[in-house]
Design brief:
This protein is of the alpha+beta class and 297 residues long. It has two domains: 131 residues, OmpA-like domain (60s Ribosomal Protein L30, Chain: A), CATH 3.30.1330; 142 residues, 2-Layer Sandwich (60s Ribosomal Protein L30, Chain: A), CATH 3.30.1330. Helix content is 27%, strand content 22%. The chain is built from seven helices and twelve strands. The strands form three sheets. Strands 1, 2, 3, 4, 5 and 6 form a six-stranded mixed β-sheet that branches. A four-stranded mixed β-sheet has the order 9-12-10-11, with helices on one face. Helix 4 crosses helix 5. It starts with a strand and ends with a strand. This is OmpA family protein. Keywords: Membrane, Signal.
């Protein structure tokens, strides 16, 4: 055999200790790359016994008969054939690679012993030492310093439409609830009001908008979905519930919060907290609401 074909993980495979890795050989007939029945049976038996093992490499060999090119191709076909038989039946390292090593194998005087594929593998008991056996030095994990407690601002300075600055007092308790909420939790936004039959914010709603904004800034992994609801009518003909939820999303996005972290949906009057028509102003206010659904945090 003039050439050796190998499916390897690392070029250092042959420097691994003999005791660390196991080997299993399959033999082929002259100029054949598919296994005869007896070898197929041996491979099936090996697979049954090694379902929890992990393959490190597969090397293919031929005898010395034939040209360099033909032998190299034949060795490749033998490895590919064996690989197709074991794929998805036993673990194989994800960094499995294909290499040709030329005249790097020692020929046996018995030709039949040279026509083979050798599987190098680790048994389950040795998997915990896999990197050590392969000579892979693990990089030390960086020490992650615990983050300090998140400090929510109690007020912010914002510029009004007329250009003047305004101090807005924020509800830290509400911000903390949103910031610490888990995925799937839903929180109602109180005191977020719109002009009648519109999706324009009333001035007294500005604190709630900035509370959401500051919370999103402090929690970069937080993703939310805004749910809009309306009251006092049999149907949301103007689609106000959707437009109001969208208006909040547009505000947050305009202040630098990525669109991928925001979504919205209007539910009209389909999810009232109190039956419609409402009996009291408090019931109408409860039904006319916007909620924050925490999608990810």
């Amino acid at each position: 055999m003039k050439k050796l074909f190998s499916v390897l993980i690392f070029s250092l495979l042959f420097s691994m200790t003999i005791q660390a890795q196991e080997q299993f050989s399959l033999y082929f007939e002259t100029n054949k790359y598919d296994l005869k029945k007896s070898e197929s049976a041996r491979l099936s038996e090996w697979l049954t016994k090694n379902a929890t093992s992990k393959i490190l490499a597969i090397n293919g060999y031929t005898d010395e008969d034939g040209s360099v090119g033909l032998n190299d191709t034949l060795a490749q076909h033998r490895v590919s054939h064996v690989f197709s038989l074991i794929k998805n039946k036993v673990k194989i390292r994800s960094d499995f690679k294909t290499r040709s090593f030329g005249k790097l194998h020692k020929q046996s005087p018995v030709k039949a012993e040279n026509r083979k594929v050798v599987i190098y593998y680790l048994e389950e008991k040795d998997l915990a030492k896999e990197n050590e056996i392969l000579g892979i030095k693990e990089e030390p994990k960086p020490v992650v310093k615990p983050a300090g407690p998140i400090v929510y601002p109690s007020k912010v300075m914002v510029r009004k439409p007329d250009g003047k600055e305004e101090e807005i007092v924020l509800n830290v308790e509400f911000m903390k609830k949103v910031g610490e909420a888990k995925a799937g939790e839903k929180l109602r936004i109180d005191n977020l009001n719109f002009y009648e039959n519109s999706y324009v914010f009333m001035p007294d709603s500005r604190p709630k908008l900035y509370e959401l904004l500051e919370t999103m800034k402090l929690h970069p992994r937080l993703k939310i979905k805004l749910h809009g609801h309306v009251c006092c009518m049999k149907a949301d003909r103007k689609n106000l519930s959707t437009e109001r939820a969208k208006a909040i999303m547009m505000f947050l996005n305009g202040q630098g919060i990525e669109k991928t972290r925001l979504s919205f949906e209007g539910f009209g009057v389909s999810q009232p907290m109190y039956p419609i028509p409402e009996k009291t102003p408090e019931e109408r206010e409860a039904n006319r609401r916007v909620e924050v659904l925490v999608v990810e945090n």
